[in-house]
Amino acid sequence: MRAVLLATTHGAEALLPSPHPEVTGDTVFGRLRRQLARFDVTDLTVIGRPELMPGLPLEGARVTTSTDVDSDLRLLSEACADGDEAILVLTADALLADTAISSVLSDPTERSGALVGSPDHAGTAATAVFRDRGLILSVGTTFHHLSQPNGAACGVLKISTPYLSELRAAVRQLIADDVAELADGSDAWTLTLLALARRGTKLTAYSVPGVPYGRAVDQAETDALLTAIKDCDEDAVRLQLCVKADDDLFATYSISSYSRHLVKLCQKLRLTPVGVTWISIVLAVVAAGLFATADRTALIVGAVLMYASFTFDCVDGQLARYTHRFSAFGGWLDMIADRGKEYLLYGGLAFGAAASGIAWAWPLAIAAIGVQVVRHMTDTWYGTMQDTASLAKATRSLLYADDGFTGSGSGAPGSAAVRLGKKLGKLSAQFASQRRTPAYWFKRTIVFPVGERWLVMGLGAAIFDGGIALAALLVGQLIALGYTLAGRGLRSWAAKVAVLARPDKATHRDDGPIVRLLRRAGLPPLPVLAIGLVAVTAAIVVSAQGFGIARLITAGAGLVFLTAVFTASHRHAGPFDWLVPGALRAGEYGLAIACGLAVGVPMPLLYGLLFALSLYHYDLAARVDKAASPLDSREYGLGWDGRVVVLLISLIPGIGVWVFALFTAHMLLVFLGGAILGSRAAARTAAARPVAVNA
């Protein structure tokens, strides 16, 4: 990673107070350089005022001088013009606790963003910003009005490789619009952050509450801020922050109350977050095996091990946040393992219950995995819709003084559905702000989060049996799905944001070879998918009843659903088009169920195929949610359309079971092989990531 340091204020040359454990006469600039070196950031370009240069340690850096903000921007444009390596743009007066700078530089994903702190403690030179949903959405300058300031950007901006073109375009626009003159008195770093925000660039607001950091413009601010940093027990703050403050009900009261002790124990035992994830996986696999025996003692022990697995599932993320030992693979593995463990437990419960004579156990497990996958897919792209809506409001010309967040919009016209959607949004935000009240816990619990799902499974298995556990689980899932779709549908209609109108929508849809052949057609996706889902549902009903025409009906339903290939080139600009990926998953899983029932595929094998498909699809979701996936290519996954064709082939008499078995093995091989090869390739090419936090 390379860095550009803007040394334009006297804070850069401010001396660290004496006595000091570091070199006598050390400066804020020198301290920042050493912090960057711990993360192997040694390719430095310094842009600064000539009068400041004699007092700065510039050895090994490319140095250019400038006399005003306009020159700063032009030199910054030149420094960022070439190369595809991620870049840091920093102010040389940034005085940061190690934990603060580590929160930005230890992020291994492709996110871009800036360090944001409290407006009360970040220094007079810090940049006022508005942040929401973890994103920087508006930036204030001497000209640009900030309607809802709630943070202060502190001179650290990270731009990852996918966003380099955004940075270059933003700086060019600043120069073209002569914004330096328009916002006279604002520095080049602030204007760069402003331009990125007003382009609608997705900028993460990195923040470490409780740790002091900011920009120091003079010696007095330097002394005060450095004293606060030295007085801060960063280890204690990280330990406090590693546990989520807004977790779900079960996790909050049954795990978070003591998990910090486990985090410290894991750290003393030198366990890595990935190692803790593997412990959680092993415990879940053993629990699933015990559930499969259906023995009363085994069910109770399995429930206990499942609780232990969930505990370590919480601890792995807490350990990563405490030690700042993040990795792209670790974040991906955590997300994949969370769902993989859960679906293994479904399978274990179903196997044991079926062996005990409960005929509807496997159908319950199959329905549960299908509902949960569709729910998670809609969750992923609904989150994308919300981010897109926020970024759309942030997008604005640099020549406008006001940002896009002025006013509440309560008087905006619209239909009853639009007004209701806006009211639901405000009500949701109100509940979220009323921490740990009955209304808050209702909102957190009605969506049936993972802790509550595992609690229902564990208690159901330990007290009753696997069949009851799965039945209770499915009821909770269906209630949560109905609740979330109803509320989000109204809020989407109010927002009216085009989520999938983007160049990479084929990736989000998981389109395959047939779509690429017929991409010129452009039918609206949701009506076509709705018809396809009705046809697939009818095929499931007919196949479940064992009618002789089940194969024919299922084949027809598959062809109807396959007409969704003609929707691929549609712009996907409708307010509900965020449902398209989830609808495609629902149709694909539903068709797999219908085909399996029609040709008499054993229930465990049918469930195994859905399990393999779910892992593959969660990897796709990880690209959106975690900005990380080791799978370099999805070509061998065949796309949803290619997989539908394979399912239709299984309807040929005499080969159905073999097709399902080979298809399941193929999808597992694609997922596991791609993950292993991709992870090894990344390990070979990526430099070792130093850890700046001593924990």
Structure commentary:
There is one protein chain. With 695 residues, the chain is α/β, with parallel strands linked by helices. The protein folds into 3 domains: 2-232, Spore Coat Polysaccharide Biosynthesis Protein SpsA, Chain A, CATH 3.90.550.10; 242-497, CDP-alcohol phosphotransferase transmembrane (TM) domain (Four Helix Bundle (Hemerythrin (Met), subunit A), Up-down Bundle); 500-695, Four Helix Bundle (Hemerythrin (Met), subunit A). It is built from 26 helices and 11 strands. It has helices at residues 28-37, 69-79, 98-105, 164-176, 179-182, 188-198, 219-231, 234-241, 249-254, 259-268, 273-293, 296-323, 328-355, 361-394, 416-433, 438-446, 450-463, 466-495, 505-509, 513-517, 525-544, 550-562, 580-599, 603-625, 639-649, 656-685, and strands at 2-7, 43-48, 62-65, 87-91, 94-96, 112-117, 127-132, 135-139, 151-159, 203-206, 213-215. The strands form 2 sheets. Strands 1, 2, 3, 4, 6, 7, 8, 9 and 10 form a 9-stranded mixed beta sheet that branches. A two-stranded antiparallel ribbon has the order 5-11. Residues 408-413 and 686-692 have low confidence and may be disordered. InterPro entries: CDP-OH_P_trans (IPR000462), CDP-OH_PTrfase_TM_dom (IPR043130), CDP_ALCOHOL_P_TRANSF_CS (IPR048254), DUF5941 (IPR045985). Belongs to the CDP-alcohol phosphatidyltransferase class-I family. GO terms for molecular function: phosphotransferase activity, for other substituted phosphate groups.
